[in-house]
What we know:
The protein is about 40% helix and about 15% strand. By secondary structure, the chain is α/β, with parallel strands linked by helices.
Amino acid sequence: MANHLLFIPGPVACAPEVLEAMALPLVDHRGPEFAALLERIVRGLRPIFGTEHDVLLLGSSGSGGLEAAIVNSFSPGDRVLVCPVGVFGRRLAAIATANGLDVDVLDTPLGHAVDPRALAARLADEGTRRYAGILLTHNETSTGVQNDMAALAAAIGAHPATVIVDSVSGLGASEFAMDAWRFDIVVTASQKALAVPPGLAMVAVSPRAFDRMARARAPRFYFDLGKAREFAALGQTPWTPPVSLAFALDVALARYHEAGAAHAFERHARYARAIRAFAQAANVEVFSQPGAHSVTVVAMNVPDGLDAAALRTDLREDHGIVMGGGQAELKGKLLRMGTMGHFSNADVRRGLVALGTVLREHGHAFDYDAALHAAGEELERALTASATR
Length: 389
Ligand SMILES: *Cc1c(COP(=O)(O)O)cnc(C)c1O
């Protein structure tokens, strides 16, 4: 168990320093140490979101942050447009429906990203009942698809809807420019690219979204973002926060900025390219379409005739490598390998050696050495490039 490498797309491997921070003695969450900690965390998060405005911490997983975004922005009966490209996008629609919103869906075939032209066309054709909200997913973890958020922002243009973005498995791993893209609420969570244990949601909120909250009538109490903002101004949270997770996030953010965001972007992209290069050379189809590839998770089709559950069991039992499977209608059809977490090139190589070995044992025909060589070239190429910079 101690030697297991988690390649699932969250929770992820954390740096020892981050885990050690969880063991520190607690502090008064209404005292000066916590206020200073909260301020440091918000200062560290702002550039990652690409915002100069409020970032609120909630004691919850990512889904709680998404629910908070929705219940603080709308009233029952409001019409919203959801643009799902997989399971997590559909969860956004489910949260909206559960809160009495009138949900319209812009459909996209699985494996594809949202087509900005289709979004623009839908907005141009919304009729007299205008959308109060547009709900987007930055990175769809179930299909390994990443949307082009700059292009979607451009497609939305000056539409007055409150734009909410699930960037739970995206933020930190690639460029994000919330203010420039005019997004209203962006949500992420601790256990993905920021590589902290699960239990903290981070919600960035635009001034416009706060203005609109006073009018939103969806029920809320624990997830009242207006209250969270009032307490944030005092260096606190309304309810007892997961203090130990805040310690861990603080350390993770310091490490993130010490290496630099560019390093994090390059590393995730490098690992994702290496995994895709392996797949291509190993006759394993990548599920996401060209141009729509995620940098944080690679979804691969399980080769015909192979049993996804048995592959995953052998990876875990024989090699200590833990990968994700498919969700919902993709159950049994995908293997998902994440790139988020405290990984080195050697760890990624170890994961791919295990995958290659297990695929071979299960009778999949491919050139094992060529597949590992293809992955190795991607891993080395970026290292050489950065070494000469
Ligand atoms: C992980 C994830 C979530 C949140 O899941 P929780 O289990 O509630 O933290 C939401 N959206 C995406 C895209 C995710 O990857």
